[in-house]
Amino acid sequence: MQPRSQREGIEAVHGGRLKVRLSAPPVDDKANTALLTLLAREFKVPRQSISITHGMHSNQKTVSLPCPAALPDWFIDLRAAVACPNPSL
Question: 67, 49, 55, 14: which is closest to 31 by C-alpha?
Fold first, then answer.
C-alpha cells in the first residue's frame, strides 16, 4: 500500500502482493479505510465484510474478504490464487 499517492488505484502485483496506491494519508486509519473502501468497490462486496487481518500499521497488509460473485478484470490473471468454492470464477 502506498498512501499519499497522486493516483489512486490498484497498480500491479509485486512480490506476490497487490500494489495499491491511495491518496489518503496514513493518519488516523484514513489510509486503511480508503484501502477497504477501494477493495469493496473493486470486488463488489459490502465494505463491512472486508477486514485487515495483518499489518494494520504497516505498508504490507493482509486483507480478508468474502469470495465475490465476479472478479474485476485486472484480477482475472490471478484467479488461480483465489481459493473459492465457486467454479465459475
Answer: 55
Task: Count, in order, helices (H) and strands (E) of the chain.
Answer: 1, 4
In a domain, 86, yes or no: no
Share of the chain above pLDDT 90, in %: 54
pLDDT of residue 17: 82
- Domains held by the chain: number: 1
Range of the domain at 36: 9-81
Q: Convert the pLDDT of each residue in 53-75 to its tens digit.
A: 999 999 999 999 998 877 888 78
